[in-house]
Amino acid sequence: MSSTLVVHHLRVSQSETIVWLCEELGVAYDLKCYDREQTLLAPEVYKALSPLKTAPVIEDVDTYQPNPEHIKLAESQACVEWISRKYGQGRLINKPWDAHWKEWLFWWHFTHGSLQPALQMKLLTAALPKDHPGAKVADSRIEHYLQLIDERLGKSQYLVGDEFTAADLIMVFPLTTMRAFIPMDLSAYSNILRYLKEIGERPAYQRTFEKAETKLKPMLDANPPSLFSM
Question: pLDDT tens across 74-89, in order?
């Protein structure tokens, strides 16, 4: 297909979220996939797409301005908002007048503001002894955050009531694919496991892996997957 929207997907990365969003919204997009190098880092051609040198990256035409211009945009939440507002009439992005606005706002920012930094701390302290203060802080935060998520999902089907939103889109990557880099056992969190099972049944999620991750199975089980390697 031909579209002004291009999704640059680094395989086994959170740019899977952007592909998934497009599939959920039924948005036309061109998909360009990139493999990681032996170092597990993004290849130079991908790093050159954005000053951040990380995934995701999208390209599009900014038609909001009097003189439309070609743009590149990074950061997961920024990409989600751009695509949702431009192509999806704001779907999956809750509004201040929606019933669960306050809850949505919290969970929309929770993943990248709390959970993912804790997982990155775990990755950085992985070589340290388990009783090292830094390692203990990372483990404690992750356990606490998983309990919060599990408790929330014990009250509703999704993070924000019984309606799938962008907060769920952002949450799923650290609970699934990111575990290929940071082993995380979810056996103690029955509500999270129920949630991931239902996510895995969504046709748009399945299409995401069919198109963007042909060699990777969705990591929806309780047991941590094998560590990713090239």
Answer: 999 999 999 999 999 9
